[in-house]
Amino acid sequence: MKQRNEGTALDIPSIDQLKAEAGRSKYKKRFRHAVRNTIFTLITVSAAAVLIAVLFLPVLRIYGTSMDPTLEEGNIVISVKGSDFETGEIVAFYYNNKILVKRVIAHAGDWVDIDEDGNVYVNQKKLDEPYVSDLAFGDCDIELPYQVPESRLFVMGDHRSVSVDSRNTSVGCVAEEQIVGKIVFCVWPFSDFGKVG
After folding, report:
1. What is the rounded CA–CA span in Å between residue 195 and residue 149?
2. Are residues 109 and 167 in the same domain?
3. How many CB atoms sit inside 10 A of residue 191's CB?
4. Residue 102 bears catalytic tag
5. What residues contact residue 68 under an 8 Å CB cut-off, 6+ apart?
6. Looking at the predicted structure, is the pLDDT value of residue 2 above 60?
7. Is 14 a catalytic residue?
């Protein structure tokens, strides 16, 4: 008795088809490897950027007008961590879950006095303040002359008539541990791009 083979004929791929399939398979592996490496690199670079920004170069956005005309609302600035701050430098510091930006006027032990026209004196010497466009006595409820306490900085905004700063007991002098850093560079908007002074 004869058996009949009713199966279908097999399509056997040619050598060229096998080579093409092997090439596609290698390409897929290389592509997946490249994507995985790219994602890993992006995550690593992002984590490093965040770490640097938080620990060494905090990036801050300016809100309010207390530092006009030096810094305007909406400016994005870079600050540098540090502990030595010179008179006239701009610092950012924590205050009631916010970050304020003001200018260093005096250090621990210095005597600060302000006349009714808004002229500031440190240790009986009038400060030269070219960054202030409009002097004002401002919101001052401290007894003048005022001696800056130990480990603190006396700070004031450049827009003296609106700034609430060390002249007012609600803010007071800034403790060293409150300081985020010194404002050194403005990165936005591009029209203000450059060193902050």
Report:
1. 31
2. yes
3. 7
4. yes
5. 133, 158, 159
6. no
7. no
E strand or H helix at 27:
helix 15-55
CB contact at 8 A, 49 and 61:
no
How does pLDDT run across 143-190, given as a tens digit for each residue?
999 999 999 999 999 999 999 999 999 999 999 889 988 988 888 887
Among candidate residues 66, 79, 163, 166, the one labeled active-site is: 66
The pLDDT tens digits for 67-115 are 888 888 888 888 888 778 899 999 999 998 888 999 999 999 999 999 9
Specify the DSSP class assigned to residue 108. T
pTM: 0.69
Shared domain check, 32 and 105: no
By residue range, what is the domain housing residue 44? 16-55
Helix, strand, coil percentages, rounded to 5, for the chain: 25, 25, 50
* Options 79, 102, 163, 182, the catalytic residue: 102
In the 8-state DSSP scheme, what is residue 178?
G
- Whether 144 and 73 share a structural domain: yes
Does the bond joining 189 to the residue before it have cis omega, within 30 degrees of 0? yes
